[in-house]
Design brief:
Elements lengths: L5 H28 L6 H22 L1 H6 L1 H4 L4 H24 L5
Helix pairs in contact: 1-5, 2-5
Length: about 110
């Protein structure tokens, strides 16, 4: 159901999952380094997690609906992966800016 085929779609979903792991791990390490304080970045990531959870929950709770409308519903699978990429980019930019603000050290 993708332009480049299922193998490409599988790789993109894998990259999205890896991005989520990187973003969440980096947020956890950052929170520990700051003494557990919540940052704006953590709130932004929480919004992305919530948005992705709605889509994943939809697929999990309504499998028949997904099968009946697979021609167009399957496209929303890309959103959680894309949200993971956005979270990873946001975390990376935050860490780069933080490093520059502290003179090369975190």
């Amino acid at each position: 159901m993708t332009v480049a085929g299922s193998q490409t779609a599988s790789w993109l979903l894998l990259i999205g999952a890896a991005s989520w792991l990187y973003a969440l791990w980096s947020l956890a390490v950052n929170a520990l380094a700051k003494g557990g304080r919540l940052t704006q970045l953590a709130l932004d990531a929480a919004v992305l997690v919530a948005a992705a959870a709605v889509i994943v929950g939809w697929y999990w709770r309504l499998p028949t609906h997904t099968i009946e409308h697979s021609a167009f519903v399957v496209r929303t699978v890309a959103l959680p992966a894309a949200y993971g990429l956005v979270a990873a980019i946001s975390v990376t930019l935050y860490l780069i800016n933080r490093r520059q603000a502290y003179g090369g050290r975190l």
